C-alpha cells in the first residue's frame, strides 16, 4: 500500500468531488438505477461546491488516501444522526477506487476515521463486498432498513473494543 492518509482541506474539494463520483460508479454500477449515477455526473460543479462547504464548515473530519497518482479513497465520520441507536459515532462514508480494492486502503481509512470505537454505518443492500468488509471489522447487521431512491440501505453496528 503506497498511500498516505491525511485530513482533507477545502483545497481538496474538486479532486474529492471527482473521486466521489468515480468510487460511486465503482461501487454501485449494477446495484442502483444507472440514472442516479448519471445524474450525479451531470452536476459536477454542484458537487465540488458541496464538498468545499463540507470541508469548510462541517467540523467532521474527512480523511483522504493519497497515492502517487492522486486520490484513491476517502472516509468521513461524525456524530450519529440516528435517534434509535445508542451509538454516538457514525461512519458516513468509506470508499476506495476499485483499482485499489484489496490493498488495505479501506482498512487504513477506517482505522483513521473511527479506530476501534463503537459506531454504526449504512450500506446499500446487495453490496456484498462492503458487507463482508465491515463484518471483518466487527460490524453486524442490526435489522434496521431504510428505502431510498438508490435502493434499500441496511444498518450495521459495532460495539467498541
From TrEMBL:
The entry lists its GO molecular-function terms as: acyltransferase activity, transferring groups other than amino-acyl groups
Question: This protein's superkingdom?
Answer: Bacteria
Asked if the record carries the keyword Acyltransferase, the reply is yes
* InterPro entries in the cross-refs: Acyl_CoA_acyltransferase, GNAT_dom
SUPFAM superfamilies listed in its UniProt record: Acyl-CoA N-acyltransferases (Nat) (SSF55729)
Q: Which PROSITE patterns match?
A: GNAT
Q: Which UniProt keywords apply?
A: Acyltransferase, Transferase
Provide the protein name: L-amino acid N-acyltransferase YncA
This protein's species is: Nocardioides lianchengensis
Source organism phylogeny = Bacteria, Bacillati, Actinomycetota, Actinomycetes, Propionibacteriales
Amino acid at each position: 500500500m503506497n498511500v498516505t492518509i491525511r485530513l482533507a482541506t477545502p483545497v481538496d474539494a474538486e479532486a474529492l468531488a471527482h473521486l466521489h463520483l468515480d468510487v460511486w460508479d465503482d461501487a454501485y454500477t449494477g446495484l442502483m438505477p444507472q440514472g442516479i449515477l448519471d445524474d450525479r455526473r451531470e452536476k459536477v460543479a454542484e458537487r465540488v461546491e458541496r464538498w468545499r462547504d463540507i470541508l469548510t464548515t462541517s467540523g467532521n473530519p474527512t480523511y483522504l488516501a493519497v497515492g502517487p497518482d492522486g486520490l484513491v479513497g476517502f472516509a468521513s465520520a461524525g456524530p450519529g444522526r440516528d435517534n434509535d441507536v445508542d451509538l454516538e459515532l457514525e461512519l458516513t462514508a468509506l470508499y476506495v477506487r476499485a483499482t485499489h480494492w484489496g490493498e488495505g486502503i479501506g482498512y487504513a481509512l477506517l482505522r483513521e476515521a473511527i479506530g476501534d470505537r463503537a459506531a454504526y454505518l449504512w450500506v446499500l443492500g446487495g453490496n456484498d463486498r462492503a458487507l463482508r468488509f465491515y463484518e471483518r471489522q466487527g460490524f453486524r447487521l442490526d435489522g434496521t432498513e431504510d428505502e431510498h431512491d438508490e435502493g434499500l440501505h441496511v444498518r450495521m453496528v459495532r460495539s467498541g473494543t
